[in-house]
Amino acid sequence: MDYTNVFTTDAIHPSREALIEWVRETGKRNGMVIIIQRADIGATNRSRPRITFVCERSGAYRHTGMDKGEEGKKKRKRKATGTKKCGCPFSLRGIKLPLADEWTLVVKCGTHNHPGGQHVEGHSFAGRLSMEEIGILIDLSKSQMKPKEILNTLKERDGLNCTTIKGIYNARHKHKLNENAGGSLMQQLMNKLMEFKYIEWHRNDEHNNCVRDLMFAHPSSLELLRAFPRVLIMDCTYRTNKYQLPLLEVVGVTSTEKTFSVAFAYLGSEREEAHTWALERLRSMIDDAMLPRVVMTDREPSLMNALQKVFPMASNLLCRWHISTNILANCKIFFESKSRLDAFISMWNIVVLAETEDEYANRLNQLESHFHRYIQAINYCKEQWLLPYKEKFVAVWTNKVMHFGNTTVNRAESTRAKLKRQLGLSRGDIESSWPKIHSLLELQHIDIKTSFEISLTNVQHNFKDPLYGEVRGSVSKSALCILVDEANRSESIGVDASACGCVYSRTHGLPCAHEISSYKIRGQPIPLACVDPHWRKLDLVSVSGKKVQDVSFTTAMELFYKRFMDADDIGKQQLVMKLMELVNSTSTSLVAPKENVKTKEGCTSSFPEGLQPYIMHVKDVAADGNCGFRVIASAMGMGEEGWPQVRRDMLFELRTYWAEYAQLFRDPIRVDELIHVLEHFQSPADYDRWMTMPDMGHIIASRYNVVLVYISMQLCLTFLPLRSAPTPLPMRRVLSIGFINDNHFVEILMTTGAPMPPVANSWSKSCYPCAEGWATPYAAYINMFHGLVSNDVATQDTMHLDSDG
What we know:
42% of the residues lie in helices and 13% in strands. By secondary structure, it is of the alpha+beta class. It is globular, with a radius of gyration of 35 Å. The chain starts with a helix and ends with a strand. This is OTU domain-containing protein.
């Protein structure tokens, strides 16, 4: 294959780089990869700089000899490798001309001893990225563009680009290694937080310096918090990292109804103490004039208790949407058709939106009257929600606080959904998650600043009415839209305050319909003063109005110096180390949290030997006599501190189906004993209030419509729902609870396809006909269990009773 004519040229190349680019591009067009074999810089006066180009298949494979190994030792297995070298004679020479930096090319041998390739993709050298392309790759990666999209962008930019997707991944990995410069994960994270001026707090284990809790906030997010502190929304995101740490997100709302993330906290547990620590850090960043007045959450007892401690003056509202979905999920088993269930939910929502106490009482009576045949559903709504929490979500009470229209945590859900799309699978570490969080925050801040400018400069045609002359351009577009709606409503309301209801004046701080009607009658524009300052704020200036005082560290350094001088040599080293961590993030000795995948050493030995290989993880809970209920709360996504709710749910189940459980246990007295066990909501719990197995297994499975696997050295059983029709297999929830040390329950995560204990024999005798299909898919797993577990382990629910401690 002779390519002499292809590379023969009289052209003078203006630089060394131009010559190299021409040779390589010409090679690509002809299906070959040309590399530099040797480059001579012309060190002597007689020689000129030159470059020797050859085919990538030139030369021969240099065999280094087989690994013979040592006598008596197993030889190392050789990898399945090969070579592309075939001694190709093709050769070109580039020579620098005497004047300037011009180069010419000479063909020494234009012949190849092999066929030309149809494509150059797959040739490692041809797939290398240029420095310009590497810069583009880095910029696109920072924008969270996926590798396949980066590859498409590079190929659209250069039709001769031969890079493969593997090359993109390799280039990204190489850049990350260079950027991190060999630092630990926590050093890398702290360095980035410091680089972008984040505020960061953390707590670590004193024994191994492992991070226990980590919280950080973007400086612009804290500016937004100080400008819009009145309403906060808090929600936890799960399965975002390989450590299985819950991610608490604090969210605020601007006057333009844009959502901003205030802070993120990776918490070592979902206990009240961890939530209190995070909220106290947040409290330290705002003064008394900027405390939140409303905090929206889900029903998370530990978070709600922490809020009461740290922000006692704030009204804690509960998300209406999640309450409605909770009732839908837990009451559907009481209805014979979807239409009746939908009608019940619709009437329930009408009760929730009642605006007076009389209206609330009437609507609740109508609900009870209309659905009197569904007493279990009525009791659930009253006992689980209305009696303990109605002031936190029913409109008659929530309309007394200024929540600016935030009655759900959907804003936090929206930002959480965006974040989870960015974070992808839950196997990432905190350091790799941070750039994605940072990117979302930057986009949030740009969007908010844009919304401010739109409210200040853009005027919609329906805002040009003289009625809005004083507020137009001085309040947010969102507030103007509400005023327009209220002005339209004033046409039918007039100045009758009782007909108006005045909801917007109480909940939004805006003139309501009857007030706007009076302004119209007087021919007066809506006064700017009657609009709450929240809606008038279109900047990032703190609402406190206080000028930031100069911060001095003189006193702090004097105290540090005194403590340093009083310490011994070891104490001085520790103080210097802590000081260095503050000023130089790369010196931190913090260790990333332990990956929460493997079972703690020794835990698997508490379970039957045949099942131990199938146990991926054992999660411990507090041992306060409520540990069994804590395990169920954690497994159901309530957080460990949701154990009182589990007791209430099980109590509701037992009371509602008292007769069925009396028949199942063959003893009505036993049902009353279990009710006594469950009627306890304090920590710690005495012995007579502990969870007991196997009888409570039936209650848990039926109450939450889940498959419950119970494992201990004495008893192994599977519990199935007693009354509901089987759900599709992919949608089923399987919870595993373990009993260890004869006094403590733990949560277990089993591998996919793990063996399952036999179904409790009393289930088949007591389940409804519609529930009989629950056990069908598990026959093979139960047979596997029998082949692995000794017959010494009981598999009948009439033989043993376990209780927690």
